[in-house]
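Form 7-S
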Amino acid sequence: MIDDRFIIQLQGKNFVTYEGLLDRAHQLGLESIQVDVVQTPSQDNNMTAICRATAKAGEKLFSDFGDASPTSVGQNLVPHILRMASTRAKARALRDMTNIGITAIEELDFNEKEDMAVTPDAAGRNTEKKTTSSSTISPDNSPPTRRQLDTIKDLSQSLNIPVDTDKLNKKTAGDLIAHLLDEKYKRH
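Output:
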């Protein structure tokens, strides 16, 4: 079973994080993950990268593909398309290995994420948008959840980004988490 802190909820649907898949795969004996570049981004293929990842646990191999292009990632991740395709491929292979049927958040394309309200679930690992004291407060002024605040604290500390959480509500906390996760993936 995957730890709840690795589950994110967007519009009532659960998604797992790559970090959670990797954690569970190690519990199940993951020995290695190999990534092969199938297609490098170029003008001829609309800057689409495709990778194949193979996870090994004992004698068992689990393999799948992932792709990324400027239209499927956030603007700040466009320079990192190849890494995003790799992460998506690894997430898919690890989902097979761990028998986790829910989609990894990293597999969503940027437009799908934008269309969904970002609300961290369990431990709330998601992508964040920076929020300032002048952020617009949504009609639902309910305070952020403890999980959202804990996630913001953990992400902001790991990224060394100071964050003031005093004026956040559930919506703005979710947006902030989304931004911080984008920043985390951009740096790693």
